[in-house]
């Protein structure tokens, strides 16, 4: 006979049975003892083998053989892996197995083969198996129905929350972090006395996870959510210290839970090699048996806080940990709150203590029953002896004792088994004392069964004993604040600095205090020690907290913080800009613009060497990718030479190489998008080009300082420059001849200002504006800096005072 079935229904039914088997039988821990079946079977097999903490070690292979032969019908590798994990102090907060031999390392090294290692139960594990022989838990048949194994262990320790657990089942998973035993026991005791308390009350005791690898944990909202709902997310951050020496060193002392230290060091090395983290001189792993020690030696002048933040962000020194408190409750998976976990454990303890009490009561009552018979027999011992002597067989003697003296069958047998030495007065007294003690024990055991308060006291005393015997100090520090919300700028001083950029792309940040003011006409002091074919093309005086916008010759814009540029000495070369931003093959940075906060009323004003200008709202530059964004479209042969941050009603002056300039209002130019080319700003004469742009925005700087390539300079009142329409040829700005050389650029100043000048020999001079003579438009000016033959001024800038930052 053929039975027809629906394939869809059969698949659903079979898959449901399979998933339930995986959930309950393999992947999820039981809420009562916090163990998965494989771990429970390992511990029970070792207990049955007498492989306890106070006995010699046994070969791991012996244990694995017992487990797979008697209880766990799976591969030996899986069993050995589970056994090894329970012996690793970097995986278990309270290791349940004591190992001897190579059990792997935090570097990811695997344990030695099972034939080489030895194990025994840890002392704390004895608390999992105490009273297992007193009918405290149910037993079930093993896989071949030849032996019995416990369904759960009668543990005195809330292991699920202390050692945690992780596993992936079918359609669900669990990820429970380990916690501190002392804190968990204290919370359990509080719950025992205050069953109506809430999770926040328990969190006064359990501050958060306590990982065996230490480190820091933060994310109070995620932690609270995990304890109140069963799901939440926290962050684990490495413990880092700064050590002073010839150079500062970042020393990593503790790493996040379950992070492979060797892979972590390799990742940091990779970040250094790929120039994603700059400023690191050396990386060493000095870890030993005493603990983790990863040393990152820093280069001089690097802010360690910036490096640390980048390490946290990119290297794995900070990890997110998703908490998912899923466990098996009454043979069903359930998402649990912290309170429910502890309630389930306490209910398990009540069941275990009551079953143990009943077992001990039955045993005590049975013994008391025998002692009552012995006492009665001793009172009439002569008659008892006479009856026994007159009986032909032991069975007849037993029947005679039962019939003649009203003994039970058990009492009669005990009398027959009694030794003659029990007839002495001393032995008789001992028997009476034993009976009296048994009566007291029976009364106490009955009180446990009949009085909930007495039962609670028993559970409480056992928990207190566990806390006294196995407590340890917390390893993980719980932060009550979010370190991600700490502003790095609060740590780094907002001091004045000079940022220089060379033609070959080397950039550096130097303290402005390194350049003292000098008299006009000096030679200057040595600046960057660059190569023979390199020279500085841009110089910006700014402060550490400013945003630095970097505009390339190809019209792209990048953004970094000034403090992201490694600090270097006055004569240092600096680092290549490609170590900070990703430039294309023929791309180089043409202009630096420093600004703290862009406002919606600001514009970037672009100027090209062919005289094209463009105005674009800064709102289009709010979100600049690490790879940069397009700022302006350029024609072939044209280059971006200057960028200004202007306001709505600003005036702009374009300065040309041949000594001409044009002044016009930027309102003549409508704002356009980033991809546009722009419009004509000045009609250039043959052979001329634009060298700089100056913004006139109505502040107290009413003079235009113009400097030539051969070190001549002058300041001229702005009143001498009339406003024109854009696109004209402009008016004379400076008399240019062989003595002065071409115009290098211009900047607005007043008498209180200072300027900093850099020549092609990379010598820098800092002079006061008041030392520079006022002159008309069509004049050469005076000598500001002595230039050697073949050299020239390459750039200059006004020194930004602190009050103007």
UniProtKB/TrEMBL annotation:
Give the residue interval(s) assigned to the motif GyrA-box: 518-524
Lyase as UniProt keyword: no
Q: Name one GO biological process term.
A: DNA-templated DNA replication
- The portions of this protein that span the membrane are none
Top-level enzyme category: isomerase
Name the chemical reaction catalysed here.
ATP-dependent breakage, passage and rejoining of double-stranded DNA
GO molecular function terms attached to this record: ATP binding; DNA binding; DNA negative supercoiling activity
Additional notes on this entry: Few gyrases are as efficient as E.coli at forming negative supercoils. Not all organisms have 2 type II topoisomerases; in organisms with a single type II topoisomerase this enzyme also has to decatenate newly replicated chromosomes.
State the protein's purpose: A type II topoisomerase that negatively supercoils closed circular double-stranded (ds) DNA in an ATP-dependent manner to modulate DNA topology and maintain chromosomes in an underwound state. Negative supercoiling favors strand separation, and DNA replication, transcription, recombination and repair, all of which involve strand separation. Also able to catalyze the interconversion of other topological isomers of dsDNA rings, including catenanes and knotted rings. Type II topoisomerases break and join 2 DNA strands simultaneously in an ATP-dependent manner.
Q: What is this protein called?
A: DNA gyrase subunit A
Gene name? gyrA
